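Predict fold of ABC transporter ATP-binding protein; 307 aa.
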Amino acid sequence: MQPILSISGVEKRYDSGLTALGGIDLEVRRGEIFALLGPNGAGKTTLISIICGTVTMSSGRVLVGGHDIVRDFRAARSIIGLVPQEIALDIFSTVWNTVRFSRGLFGRSPDPAYLEQLLRDLSLWDKRDSKVIELSGGMKRRVMIAKALSHEPELLFLDEPTAGVDVNLRRDMWAVVRRLRDKGVTIVLTTHYIEEAEEMADRVGVIDHGRVLLVEDIATLMEKMGKRRLTLTLQHPMAAIPAELAAWPLELAADGHQILYTFDARADATGMPALLKRLGELGIDFKDLDTERSSLEEIFISLVERA
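Predicted 3D structure, encoded as tokens:
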């Protein structure tokens, strides 16, 4: 199946000499949720702005739904929805008029039934006659999403969509994102809440200093780069790791009350059974044992630091 978004050799250089993007190659599949992660200044917003036509690339090619964003701008832009970081709305317009006007900007014929369902899905229907200035910050964010979806785009960009919103609203917004994906909308999101990307995304791309470091399915990435950590809570604290345990890369934590052992869960021999046996031989008793896997955040940090 042809990808809905194809990016080839995209560069962005400024007259000052700054290279914001240095040869980006990336494809986004139809119907997926793709998370684009990177530290501040990595080039995420610049790349999205190029795709959406608000920033001009220095070189490269971008196809959206098979349409070249330069040669066939109107067709490409018509299937894109964008929710930027900044809230940009006519504060004296009503919610209904804001969304209706946005649909008209894309040349779509009036469809009150679609707009009503859209506002209901976003819990905005009861606010349809309210002016934007009367809404809370979270509700304004929902109006931004409604605007972006008003012309029924196939590809939706969410640039830090939950920044500054409370936990309940964040959960509601992700429920909306899932419903959109179920309806066939492809979603590309950037977020500082990496645990959300881990929960929501099908694939993740990591970008830093204007270059893509990695693109991978979430499950594959966690399997390939993830580690597991064994935490042993001791009956009695210790001041240092005994020399007899030097064969294992152990750390003390919690003021000597815990021993941490990090290992590769994919390895044929993790070393964990031998470690527990050796602890018993040395008379080191523990009252609790817990294992956990690396989070996407830990993998992300290691990738960026390595780069």
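Residues 61 and 115 are 34 Å apart (CA to CA).
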